Amino acid sequence: MLTTLITILSMLTISISGLAIVLGIFLIKSERREAHKRAMITASIFALIFVFLYVLRNFLQSQGLIPMGKYEGPYRGLFLFILWSHTILAIINFPLAVITLRYAFKGTFEKHKRIAPITAFVWIYVAITGWLIFYFMQFLNP
Question: Which InterPro entries match (predicted)?
Answer without folding.
Answer: DUF420
